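User: What would this chain look like folded?
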Amino acid sequence: MTRCSSGVIVELDVPARMRDGVTLRSNVFRPAGPGPWPTLLTRTPYDKDDLRMHAWCGLDPVLAASVGFLVVVQDVRGRFASDGRFDAFLHERADGYDTVEWAARLPGSNGRVAMYSASYCASTQWLAAMERPPSLAAISPALTWSEPLDGLFARGGAIELGLALRWSLENGFDSLGRLGLAADERARRVQALVDEWDRLATGCWSLPVEAIPALRRHDLPDLGGIRALEDPEIAARCRVAGMYDRVAVPTLHTAGWHDIFVQGTLDNYGAMAATGHAARLVVGPWTHHAFADPIGERVFGMRAARDGVAAHPNGTWSDLQLSWLRRHLLPERDIELPESPVRIFVMGRNEWRDELAWPPARAVRERWFLHGDGTLTTAPPEQQDVGTDFVFDPMDPVPTLGGHGVLWPGYATGPVEQATVEARDDVLVFTSRPLERDLEVTGRISTVLHAESSAPSTDWVARLCDVHPDGRSFNLCDGIIRVRDDAQECRRYEIDLWSTSNVFLRGHRIRVHVTSSSFPRWDRNLNTGDQRETRHAVARQRVHHRADRASYIALPVIR
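Assistant: Here's the prediction, encoded as structure tokens.
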């Protein structure tokens, strides 16, 4: 037990026995005084002792304890100080229930528990809440998914390869430490894994993808990212979509426009708001790891930061979260919160705005058509408009440049200037004229392609960009769809680009990319119809523009 300068008492590795006898360990941060105190809980696979984890999730447990919360930070089963075997998501429902009830009985707790944090740690909240532990009063899941096959494991049928490799490899270091190896053997294997990490820029090219040679070389488990398309049970373990009726507590949802799970968080909010339970949503211009300028290669201003500047009615985002948590953990207190349940950052104008709902009901969908001459207009194409062709070689894929992905160092995320991608012959670029007035796009975006390929199976990727008057083109959102068979027929494909909020300012231009890859975020389609082999083929792709085969992007416009 230690005492911080703030008077907070910290107990390390406090044991909690789960129903099957496995012991999990937590750090407990207690306010000075007897309490009782409202209790906050986070459960993490990323090391409860790592201060970087606390900074990333946006809640400092010492600070929270100093203002009157009892805070519990637990290593999940099989990770770091906790016993048992880690199998991603498998035990989080039962362990979550047991830990909530254990935390509610800790000395000094007022018996009401709220869970907080992001990503996997947010998934542990949803899974615990589905089990309805009696002492759980609220959850605050940030930057997390709804449907795991739409952002976590896959997107549009393609594997989220960059995330899968990064997540499994970086979690492999603790796995090696739990094997009981002799010191020299453990040191050798750790160094080999470090080398593997540093070689990922080349290692991600290995085929077949499902063999996962980067993991097999070190006898490390795939945490589900590549297995999930073949084994439905993997996704079922952590699916939130369709399970909302099992969650009976208030929810605070935090998202980033450039986060890999932005649409999942938006979908979770919408579904929980529809249940009638108290729900609130905050969306900033953030990525999965960047919450202040620069975000990618853009600067959105000090008010865009998650913390640091009082940009919200209750202060910073952290202040808002603590006020919301206190409201639901101390229902006898009259804690005022903003009337509007939705607060979004509108890029372009770079300002926060309150909304009564998501998506805004006043948005009107406009079709902007892709023309054969490379223009993008609201005018439908002529019947005689010809198609546009390009060649897709899976051995020379379009590189991932910014965007929503979570990759390893060397690959930027968020808004990044797209000049090198737009210069490629295998990227079709469609651009509007400079806008005569501001145009706000807020809501969910889709691209419809009438397209065909010379290959039996292929991918289609679409991306929306904001082109500045100086010619710089910054990505806003994108999506992919994998065509597994009959790709040689001209068919209609609708690609989900997820959601954004951006004002294309006067003098800016709207731009759409169409291509067939974004590697290594998504695995490459080999154009053969069999992704389990190393054989590949070059495909000739065609996007149609005729009036009866129009291709367009549908934008939710707020006038």
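Residues 1-142 form a domain with the Rossmann fold fold (CATH 3.40.50.1820). If you want, I can go into more detail on any region.
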